[in-house]
Amino acid sequence: MDPTISVSKGCFVYKNGATRAGKKAAGKRKRPAPGSSSLLSQDVVQQPFYAEYRNAWNQVNDHIADLQQRSYARTLEQLVDFVVDQGLCTTMDEVLPTAALLTGINQPDHLSQFTALTQRLHAQRAARVCVLQSRDCATLKAAVESLVFGLVEDDAEAENVDEEDEDVAERDRKRLRRSQCTIKQLKSWYSNNFDSERKRRQLVVILPDFECFGASVLQDLILILSAHCGALPFVLVLGVATAMTAVHGTLPYHVSSKIRLRVFQTQAAPMGLNEVLDRVLLSPKYAFHLSGKTFKFLTHIFLYYDFSIHGFIQGFKYCLMEHFFGGNAYALCTDYSKALGCIKQLTHEDIETIRRLPSFRPYVEQINDCKRIIAVLTDDDYLKKKLPQLLRDCLLHFLLFRSSLEFLTELVGDLPRCPLGKLRRELYVNCLNRPTITTPEYKECLQMLSFLSKEEFVAKANRCLDRTEQFLAEEIAPLELGEACIAVLRPQLETIRQSVADVVRATMATITTTSPDEARPATDHLTQVASRQELKEQLLQRSKEDKHRHQQNTPTTQFARAVQKTLHLIETLFVQDHLRPLQDAPPIHELFVFSDIATVRRNIIGAPRAALHTALNNPHFYMQCKCCELQDQSQLVGTLPDLSVVYKLHLECGRMINLFDWLQAFRSVVSGSDNEDAAQEQIDPQIQARFTRAVAELQFLGYIKMSKRKTDHATRLTW
Amino acid sequence: MEIICSSLETLFPCREAAVATLGELIGDSREAYPSAIYLFGHSGTGKTALTRAFLKECAKRQKVRTAHLNAIECYTTKIMLEILLDSLAPEQGDSLKADNMLDFVEQLRRWHCAPDSKSFLIAVDNAERLRDMDANVLPVLLQLQQLTSLNLCVILLSQLPFEKFYNKTGLSEVISLHLAQYNKAETQRILGSDFTQVRSQLLDQFGQDSKRLEICKEAVTEEFYNNYLNLFLSVFYKACRDVPELHLTARKCLSIYLEPVLDGSVEASDVSRLWRHIAGPLRSALTQIYMRIEKPPEEAADFAAIEDQSVRKMAQSLELPYYAKYLLIAAFLASHNAANQDKRLFVKHHGKQRKRMQTVNARAKTSDKMSTTLGPKSFTIDRLLAIFYAILEEKVGLTCNLLSQISTLVHLKLLSFVSGEQNIMDGSARLQCTIGLEFVLQIGKVVGFNVRQYLCDFM
């Protein structure tokens, strides 16, 4: 079931585990079918674009989940082994076996990892698990209580308790109140349920956010756990976000000598992201693509702000939604055969959407037959007939693009200083954003490639070819249009291969095909100089000519020529043809590429300060009311809300604001500034009340603070 | 009593005097116990182990009811009383309830009236925690004998001298018993007492390898082991006197010591060559003492994997998002520069500064005036953000993502709140940067930012 679309998911009323009967009934209750659980109304859900959206998202999501499972797997396996081993070996008394998992700094992201660990342990029936969050552990009392409660009430495991023990477990459960959760209780519970050798379980205590725990609570907790290690087989798992020094910094000697630490390292977050990007988002399997800018924007958030893979995926999902919700025309953004099926269902509206796409116009312009132009622009059926070819071209283009990207990545990825970028994602962004050939970075790359020695160049070229071939065979071939793509690329690869073979054969011999006019008798010229002036001129001229010849960059050796030729081939075949920037992509590519970066930026990056300023400075922006329309941002109108007027007035002040002046200004704005002698008048209490209230609201919003130094003054807090 | 003492003396070498004193005080349950005994000494001197064994013996031989509890567990008085009642009267089960000290004393008094009145021993570990509990706990425990008129003795175990327990209302005197630290010879004797166990373990370990087994049988003698312990203590005794810790480390290093002997490269009797071989590993083990980092079996070979955690490595291994790194640098600068220098440091056209002899003299800082060595000062979030924007070349919006980085850094304990944690909204919260200069220099190097350039101390 889709995790976020169904808002109703969290709304089922469970009786908390206190009464087992109730819980069982709840477990058996059928969840409503996924279709009806959506927030959206039925008619939206049944639209083709929605179906396509769900389809695409589910595919991507499953793929990512699968990938992450696999990347966690190794560490988790080690960890589970560690926990299980602790049960087998008899330990020294009062030493608590502890695993420290170095997770990386985004703590919320790693909770899922601990959930996976819990599931695995449950699956092996090896342990009872309690995840102890730092927010539950403000004091030692709270910590111990939630620890015991968590272990005893570890439900997923309790489901598996054998029938004969059920009544025992039930009795325990009924008796348990929060305040009764002490270590003593835990002991008696453990001896009731698990004491026999047959089903001895480890008691795993997971602290997912080690750094957030109070040092004294943590120390005491560890001392208590280690004191009871003999009777209760505790295993402690620490999720450490920074480094092992944090552990040693928090625990003094008398505590750290009570534990036995084993360190486990998990995959670093940027590596995880790269994997997700390479395997999933850049996979040729999916018809949906992100434009270079959007792609860069999302990775930028990740790398510069939060290191949250989860956040990245949600951002991607948002783009996906935004794309598909553009209308039913976007239902074409799918596999080729499915898209063909969709064409028939397109209405006039949808066809119009397609016609309005920016890339449609060049397509129309390149048709040189008037009748056909009119047909394309007015006749829906005619366009529908044309569409399959357009879609095919588009999809094929992306496949070719992706395959060529593979080639280019291998070619320039390991050059010194990586001018074009090292990783596939950087190259992807670079190639999509602008014509690569014209960039100075590309020229730099070419130059560096031509400087390579023969062995290096040949090896590199072969690596590129092999990798592309491999990519074609593994990723492209199973796809629908894979055959077509391979058919295009194979001959080109073959050409390059031959050219590389030429390079291998080429010798270092200098080619002496100097043209006759160049072969100039140099020596005799110099002998005939009459004056020093003349000699100087001649030398100057000659050096200029030399430079000129150098600039033409005519390679002088056979080898260099062959290299040049190969590079030229690569450039024309791959870079120019396939790695075209987005603006040169085939018509109607907008159906497949999401590039509306402004919307995404506005919606997924919260800018509270800017939003507040807009709201107060120009309320019309949000309220859309007639009364507050402003010609100019700084304009002050009496019809604005009081708070807004007060805010705008306060912007004009310095650090300290005199309340009385402020009030006067407020009055003159609100009551219309026509009466000049207003200052003498008694202030209308109603206006004063409105002013006071607005100032209080402003204070509540955190813009001002009443000053204690100066009477009747407020301090501005923002600038 | 003699039986108890003699059985304990073999278990606790070098503690004969303490065992004898304890035996005289509470060795015989028919005699009146002292009201309370205070047993103190550093960690690893055998307080807890000795007391536990003593209580066990007493319970076994003289049918004394005993209770041993750890004061750390007793975060409420009720828990302590429950544990006490449970272990003093196990047969009565859950029927005994005591919500406060009064109930507890009442309960015990009732036992006095019972016909089979017995003796009771109560030991409290980490007794220094009792001071922080309810005010009546410690005085009542010390006078429990008087209050209940039972033959009852409370043994308090702690690392502090008893003077630290005195409070305003005063305490009744107790009998203090100090367990002094073991000296070097004693330590060696204690470590050497498990020789037979070590030997049998080693022989087990090489059970498959017959050649090694032979060498091992021959080489590992009492003298060999003592030599090893002697070398071991020459390195470790200065740093650590905690016997269990030494015990553990000695076991760990023994296999390294034994390695050249098993290979046949060094004679078992050639102590000086063995010393040359072991000195390095011992020293590196010394840096790791108390850390208890255990390596998985496959990685046991590379000894230097984890311990080489210099600041440089740590700073490089710590992954932070780009802006978080800049925030951290900004926080460090804010913490280690005076606020009135900010304008000069971060604003391009800050005007000319007049140089007067006075200021020059004041500026001539001695090293103890350097703010980097004085420790961090606090700063407000506004100042942090202002410096952040000043040192960052590109323009970044003040977004939620950026602001949440600050709280992430606080969570990671790289920044910490000094005051006003509750009112972040009105801008009076003050933060502090907790990382050192070395660390921040490394982070600056990663993002290509010269931190020194912006520190007043290095101007």
UniProtKB/TrEMBL annotation, chain A:
Its main location: nucleus. It is found in: Nucleus. Residues 609-719 form the Origin recognition complex subunit 3 winged helix C-terminal domain. One of its GO terms (molecular function) is DNA replication origin binding. One of its GO terms (cellular component) is nuclear origin of replication recognition complex. Residues 3-332 form the Origin recognition complex subunit 3 N-terminal domain. Residues 343-596 form the Origin recognition complex subunit 3 insertion domain. This is Origin recognition complex subunit 3. It comes from Drosophila suzukii. The gene is Orc3.
From TrEMBL, chain B:
It is found in: Nucleus. GO terms for biological process: DNA replication initiation. GO terms for molecular function: ATP binding; DNA replication origin binding. Belongs to the ORC5 family. Gene3D superfamilies: P-loop containing nucleotide triphosphate hydrolases. Residues 225-285 form the ORC5 lid domain. Pfam families: AAA_16, ORC5_C, ORC5_lid. It comes from the Eukaryota. Residues 320-455 form the Origin recognition complex subunit 5 C-terminal domain. Residues 12-155 form the Orc1-like AAA ATPase domain. The keyword Ribonucleoprotein does not apply. This is Origin recognition complex subunit 5. InterPro entries: AAA_16, ORC5, ORC5_C, ORC5_lid, P-loop_NTPase. The lineage of its organism: Eukaryota, Metazoa, Ecdysozoa, Arthropoda, Hexapoda. GO terms for cellular component: nuclear origin of replication recognition complex. Keywords: ATP-binding, DNA replication, Nucleotide-binding, Nucleus.
